[in-house]
Amino acid sequence: MFVPLLQKIWRVVDDRTGIAEAVGPILQHPVPADARWAYVFGSATLAAFIVQVVTGIALATTYVSSAGDAYDSLNFITNNAPFGSLMRGMHFYGASAMVVLVGIHAAQTFLHGSYKFPREANWLSGVLLLFLTLGMGFTGQLLRWDQNAVWSVVVGAEQAARAPLIGEKAAQFVLAGETIGGATLSRFFAFHVFFIPGLIFGIVGFHLFLVIRNGISEMPRAGRPVHPATYRQWYHELLAKEGVPFWPDAAWRDVIFGASVVVIIFVLALVIGPPALDKPPDPSIIEAYPRPDWYLLWYFAVLALIPPAWENWIILLAPLLGALLLFAIPFLSNHGERAPERRPWAVGAVLFVIVMIGALWVAGEQAHWSPDFHPDPLPAAVVGATSGPVATGAELFHKKGCQNCHRVASYGGRRGPDLTAVGRRLDVAQLTTRILNGGTNMPAFAGVLQPAEVEDLVAFLQSRQ
Ligand code: HEC
């Protein structure tokens, strides 16, 4: 009785909407029989994206995107809201999954030469999606609005500002003003929930349309090059001869792999939970570990490790060249061999990128460029005074985070110059200017420190002879 009822409902719905007619051919369209497990990464990326949409909407129902409330609302989501911790966790691991999967998908289609005729537009729209995914990661991080998130963006913006020609404008655009604040958060929120996802939806639709239109590429085989003039006809004959229907013959692998990805995201969120929130942002304490989530860390490492003289150009040119190169790939060669064993340069390029990103990632984890966030306070023996401006200055030097970046007598971080004997190098006026104005990779402290605090700090630094 129940089943006939369902069948009847389905018949009515199908009759009025034509759904079977629209979807049937897509599910049934023939695909190459040898398209096996190598091809599951695209659909798995889509699965991770859907996780992001669902958990993102859930988070947005409670998140408040104002500088005064964002941190508290996330704290509430993490600790009090029903399923809040699970949603935050899934959104976090979902983001990582999406970055990893989109990277593997790009590497796989590149290695298999799937970007060649007639699938050039598939590749180009895919490159756009790769960058939009990274953009989601970058904008999403700031919404956490804790020390770490805020300082990551400050560091990023300071670095962007040093790029020639457009640097200043780019930094102002990212920050929505001269400094980070409520306007920055609004801008990142709008990009993260409206603008970039809107673009992703549109381009994913186009990307999938192209997958159907051009067909899934057959497994590459050495000695079977692509000839644009004859490829389409050859491909259709191949499908007619040995194609299998997409559903269920090929798609079950996508379903299993995609579902496993979702389950892994779910389990990680449940067992490990979302990353702990850092302290709320306070511009007078530079206690954060200003480094981005792992998938952007390697790029921060690039910026921190290159010689200062090149820095300004590399900041601008490296991402631009990288993007141009990716976009240029199908224009450089859209025919010929697809098999990796006949394209050693392609294999080498992928290995090179993997090794480079891996090495930079390790460097980013370890390098001195990141401040030391728990330096021991300077002992009285090093300070040489227990009261008066010098002692107060030494205390401020620790409390205000100067010591995170600066060493004095082997206490402190190594992000900035060692200040053990700075009193010999710089006079009162120079020290004051440097503290108030900051410098390359040093934040400006004007407006953050009281005049009396600056005087004490200078007194302490002057005593370092
Ligand atoms: C985020 C890291 C960081 C923090 C925090 C920081 N600095 Fe710096 N500081 C630097 C860097 C990097 C330089 C070198 C800048 C340059 O050459 O333009 C520098 C330069 C200086 C110099 C000039 C040193 C020289 O030999 O020329 C002084 C003095 C100084 N900082 C004092 C301070 C004081 C005081 C504080 C705390 C109120 C502080 N810094 C906080 C990174 C930092």
Give the topology.
Elements: H1 2-17, H2 19-28, E1 30-32, H3 41-60, H4 70-79, H5 84-111, H6 120-143, H7 147-161, H8 167-175, H9 182-214, H10 228-242, E2 243-245, H11 246-271, H12 294-305, H13 308-332, H14 344-366, H15 380-383, H16 389-399, H17 402-405, H18 422-425, H19 428-437, H20 451-462
Antiparallel strand pairs: 1-2
Helix pairs in contact: 3-5, 3-11, 4-5, 5-6, 5-11, 6-7, 6-9, 6-13, 7-8, 12-14, 16-20, 19-20
Bound molecules: heme C.
Heme C binds next to α17, α18, α19 and α20.
Summarize the structure in words.
This protein is mainly alpha-helical and 465 residues long. The chain has two domains: 30-366, Cytochrome Bc1 Complex, Chain C (Up-down Bundle); 380-462, Cytochrome Bc1 Complex, Chain D, domain 2, CATH 1.10.760.10. The chain is built from 20 helices and two strands. Helix 3 (41-60) runs antiparallel to helix 5 (84-111). The longest helix is centred in the middle third of the chain and has 33 residues, at 182-214. Heme C binds next to helix 17, helix 18, helix 19 and helix 20.
